[in-house]
Amino acid sequence: MKSKTANTKEMKSKPANATVQLEVSSDQIKAELIEIKERLGALETIASISNKTVVEAFVKEYLTTAKGKQIMKECEAPQTREKLIAKFHFASAQALDYHLTPLREADLIRQYLDDAGTQTFVWSNLFKRLPKKTIREILDS
After folding, report:
1. Which of the four CATH numbers 3.40.50.150, 3.65.10.10, 3.40.190.10, 1.10.10.10 does domain 26-140 have?
2. Would the pTM count as exceeding 0.85?
């Protein structure tokens, strides 16, 4: 059995900056992520509105192919990889990626996992915050 003095020495020997383990529930993390996404969405909205002409020029620069525009039209509503492959008769996922990658890199398409864990694609906030008339002009040109 350790003496009271030995226990005191052990307690004093722990560094002052020792980490404390904290348990956080997934509900708390989800709530914080939702709040972050809402704030980010608000900032993207402000940026799109205040820089409409710049955003419009940027979008036009990246939407130069007919297939890219078709994919963008389809992704107004969330679309799975499988639906896009079937819709456009791509031979493989790599063929779809050839067209999706530049759209994702330019932040025109957002990729996420839906509740079932399926990879899904939809317009980014940057793109969908453009005026509807402008979007139609870009996608129909």
Report:
1. 1.10.10.10
2. no
Q: 109 — phi, psi (to 5°)?
A: -120, 135
Alpha helix (H) ranges present in 4-121?
4-13, 26-50, 52-62, 66-74, 81-87, 93-105
Q: Which amino acid is at 89?
A: H
Distance (Å, whole) CA 137 – CA 90? 26
CB 118 within 8 A of CB 72: no
Closest CA to 121 of 89, 73, 88: 73
pLDDT tens digits for 69-82? 999 999 999 999 99
In three-state secondary structure terms, 122 is: strand
Give pLDDT tens digits for 103-136.
999 889 999 888 888 899 999 988 888 889 989 9
Summarised one tens digit per residue, pLDDT across range 30-77 is 888 888 887 887 777 677 667 778 888 888 888 989 999 999 999 999
